[in-house]
Amino acid sequence: xxxxxxxxxxxxxxxxxxxxxxxxxxxxxxxxxxxxxxxxxxxxxxxxxxxxxxxxxxxxxxxxxxxxxxxxxxxxxxxxxxxxxxxxxxxxxxxxxxxxxxxxxxxxxxxxxxxxxxxxxxxxxxxxxxxxxxxxxxxxxxxxxxxxxxxxxxxxxxxxxxxxxxxxxxxxxxxxxxxxxxxxxxxxxxxxxxxxxxxxxxxxxxxxxxxxxxxxxxxxxxxxxxxxxxxxxxxxxxxxxxxxxxxxxxxxxxxxxxxxxxxxxxxxxxxxxxxxxxxxxxxxxxxxxxxxxxxxxxxxxxxxxxxxxxxxxxxxxxxxxxxxxxxxxxxxxxxxxxxxxxxxxxxxxxxxxxxxxxxxxxxxxxxxxxxxxxxxxxxxxxxxxxxxxxxxxxxxxxxxxxxxxxxxxxxxxxxxxxxxxxxxxxxxxxxxxxxxxxxxxxxxxxxxxxxxxxxxxxxxxxxxxxxxxxxxxxxxxxxxxxxxxxxxxxxxxxxxxxxxxxxxxxxx
Length: 508
Fold this sequence. Notes:
Blueprint: E1 5-6, E2 17-18, E3 25-26, H1 37-54, E4 56-58, H2 61-69, E5 73-75, E6 80-82, H3 85-94, E7 98-101, E8 110-113, E9 116-119, E10 127-129, E11 136-137, H4 140-152, H5 170-184, H6 196-210, H7 214-219, E12 225-228, E13 234-235, H8 237-248, E14 253-256, E15 259-261, H9 269-290, E16 296-299, E17 302-304, H10 317-333, E18 337-340, H11 350-365, E19 370-372, E20 377-378, E21 383-385, H12 386-403, H13 410-413, H14 415-420, H15 431-440, H16 452-457, H17 463-476, H18 485-500
Parallel strand pairs: 4-13, 9-19, 10-21, 12-14, 14-16, 15-17, 16-18, 18-19
Antiparallel strand pairs: 1-2, 3-9, 4-6, 5-6, 7-8, 10-11, 20-21
Helix pairs in contact: 1-9, 1-10, 3-9, 4-5, 5-6, 5-18, 6-18, 8-9, 9-10, 10-11, 11-12, 12-17
């Protein structure tokens, strides 16, 4: 099943399909707060002070040159760039408040703005695991299977990096990974920003398959990428280059510091968010210096660590507070923004479910536009679990259902049903129930609500075992969306030509 759900009746009845739209969700919740308005303003002003007085270490010479031309103070010996608040404020004026990223079909276009809500699977993991093959270095096959599963579920509106295809050399990996996205899915793809050559290759591949001219591509977002700063206060060469490449091409980047409290950031929530906010503002400023009006997203990913081991922790009160506080800062800027769920558990157990759901709730209640790592993540991002991906989809589709309108007309208020059923009776066979539960009942993906005896008769299979059957069935029965064969042929010719020329290595 995708976004559509199936209702249930008696054992001899034929279930009817319930059609719903999970492709363009609007967050129904009032964004929550953890800081007063004065505190949010103090964090924002202190972040500006950090950029002005302490600065960012920017490793890419071209980025330092661009900052200098915009009026920033640059020390070439230390590579420290001090960015005035006038530069930041100009960038915030030019950055768009809303844009849409185009998919392979019009109905796959994804709006990116405050109030919109999208979910993505866990991303960037070097390892993959499932209960049959175990934990292992990720391969292109694993990545492609994640694309197939993502394509299957409408509540995952965009593709993400998923896992690293470590069986493909790094100078060729972006070809294989993006080809899998473009031929197995019609959703918005993730594109690499690891070197100027890789970015150009990815943009050309997307342009070929989507049938866009160069001018159309530069004028319209067709993909997204993620830019991570090196906290504290450093922007490395590939990430700075990626900001420039994507801005100049008119493609959105998500500028996301990764601030672990007590490790790469101050141990307090407010201190970590001050650093994160400053770094995000620096990246956003660079994008607007490269091309005023370029689409860009504010990003935040802050959590605490276990101070005994240094390992990241997720689903904690501190992480939820950081997510909600980041949402307040994003609204202070007026920009669409990315937050994330997270999970540090090593296996798909109760800890894993708790951490992912609590951190996801923090992102949703914070008003995040994009919630990354919403399904499948383990070990703080070191591994994606196929079974956890499915059990987490249960949560993601629950969020999607909460975004749908809940009727409260006369029929839904159900006075006739209340009048029909006498005191002490039941509503199982009431006319109101029989008319509605076929299409209104939410059937879960993984959950088994049978009693203990029935569950035992069926083999006493737990949620992880049932999830394994579900994801393998999706992969085995998968059919890719129809894509023009001539465009795929042109895509393969481009990949072959670039491969023969030596590919495009990432930069470090």
